[in-house]
Design goal:
The protein is of the alpha/beta class. The chain has helices at residues 36-39, 43-55, 63-73, 110-121, 131-139; strands spanning 4-11, 15-17, 56-62, 86-89, 103-106, 125-128, 145-151, 159-160, 172-179, 184-190.
Length: 200
């Protein structure tokens, strides 16, 4: 059975990018620090990154994430040589995409993207990796888990992950927390509406 997981890095004050975004720095000024935990020499971060590469069999991303990340991803997508399929939610497919790339462009909304991703993933899990699309999945009740890599930096401004969600109170169960010097990695299971959280 698939788990649909929002897996994303953010600053301590809740931003997934910094300000001053440009083509050269699509994550904003010094925004790439949010991914140092995965690319650096921290063994725990490397292990968590490796587990994610093995776990996710399909990816759902937004158009902005695709546009900003394509120079790094190339034709193989965010998971590299394993070439997991990436379903990009967009209003309009781009005129050009890398030849032989792993990308499919979905113009019919997140439900269609999820249906395609589930078919592609088989029994594997599906990663959602964009702020806007992630919020849409939360609001639609389509997520099973949230995985946050919280980096000890304050950006003050940028693109906020959880910004005015159109939801009622939603309870989470903490599955795991791993603390390293580069990030605190938190994994939560979303309790569905029929699940009643016991009083504390």
């Amino acid at each position: 059975m698939n788990n649909v997981v929002l897996d994303i890095s953010m600053s301590l004050d809740g931003y997934i990018t910094a300000t001053e975004q440009t083509a050269a720095e699509p994550m904003g000024r010094d925004g790439l620090v949010l991914h140092d935990w995965a690319w650096g020499d921290d063994p725990a971060g490397q292990e968590i990154g490796g587990m994610a590469l093995a776990r996710y069999q399909a990816v759902i991303a937004g158009r902005t994430t695709y546009d900003h990340s394509l120079p790094w991803w190339g034709a193989d997508g965010p998971i590299g040589s394993t070439r997991r399929p990436v379903f990009v939610v967009t209003h309009e497919a781009p005129k050009k995409s890398p030849a032989g790339g792993v990308y499919e462009f979905v113009t019919d909304g997140i439900e269609e993207a999820l249906a395609r991703a589930m078919k592609a993933a088989g029994d594997g899990d599906i990663e959602v990796m964009s702020a806007s699309v992630g919020r849409q999945f939360i609001e639609a009740g389509l997520l099973d888990e949230i995985v946050l890599h919280v980096v000890p930096v304050l950006f003050g401004d940028g693109i906020r992950l959880f910004d005015r969600l159109k939801i009622d109170h939603t309870w989470l169960d903490t599955i795991d927390v791993v603390r390293t010097s580069a990030a605190t990695h938190q994994r939560f299971r979303i309790l569905k509406p029929k699940t009643v959280r016991p009083p504390r």
